[in-house]
């Protein structure tokens, strides 16, 4: 069964200037339901993650400043919007949703979080609309509970997963792979275990060639028993922040290839959706829905 973490709070409560891109969190499940790809049975609503799981990944002092809404204004500006209790609750539910998806992925092969992919959050900072790193928190959950011994994080959002790279810099059981725009945010990059920087204007052919050359070798080398996939659709040519030139078909082929590799090696995979900032919300929703449809086709 395809299991999808979604809660209405994913789309709220954000400042007015950020509500347009966040509409996708409501529209993606609605579109999948409308097309009959999923039913209500596929969707679950996560609780808030426990603090013990947060401080396994993030510094306690940083978490307390988030929790108590005492993060300095300069650090709030780095995140991109002012803190609120509802916003922190949203982050906590997204993180728990990714943990829950790990359990479902172990049972069904893969599971999705409609939100997540908060890869700019480092151990002691928030940045780029990210405060708690959902996939890092979930990876540490798997390690701590001996549910995985070797983890591969495949980050194909257009922006480097700098927070994820910093968190796992000294953790040999987690291999971080980021394929991203070289001249895009964040302008100060961290060092993933493997970074593939892309020039502005990179097209389908080059992007897919690089991915298909790198990923099978990584899986053979690392032999992961769990994979996290960050499936941002800000690689599209239509994306106002992406700077790459991929088509929707190229984006679909990217997803298909990642899922085929996971299935071929019988590795469970958790998917967080990541970024998408095309001016037309229909382009964002269609591209994200394509990721679900391909997974549903291959797995179910």
From TrEMBL:
What's one Pfam family here? Answer: Hist_deacetyl
Keyword Lyase applies = no
Name all Histone deacetylase domain ranges. 21-289
Name the InterPro entries on file: HDAC_classIV (IPR044150), HDACs (IPR000286), His_deacetylse_dom (IPR023801), His_deacetylse_dom_sf (IPR037138), Ureohydrolase_dom_sf (IPR023696)
Q: Which UniProt keywords apply?
A: Hydrolase
One GO MF term on file is:
hydrolase activity
Q: Which GO terms describe its biological process?
A: epigenetic regulation of gene expression
- Superkingdom of this entry's organism? Bacteria
Recorded hits in Gene3D superfamilies, A to Z, give: Histone deacetylase domain
Q: What family does the entry list?
A: Belongs to the histone deacetylase family.
Q: What PANTHER family does the record tag this protein with?
A: HISTONE DEACETYLASE 12, HISTONE DEACETYLASE HDAC1-RELATED
Its recorded name reads Histone deacetylase
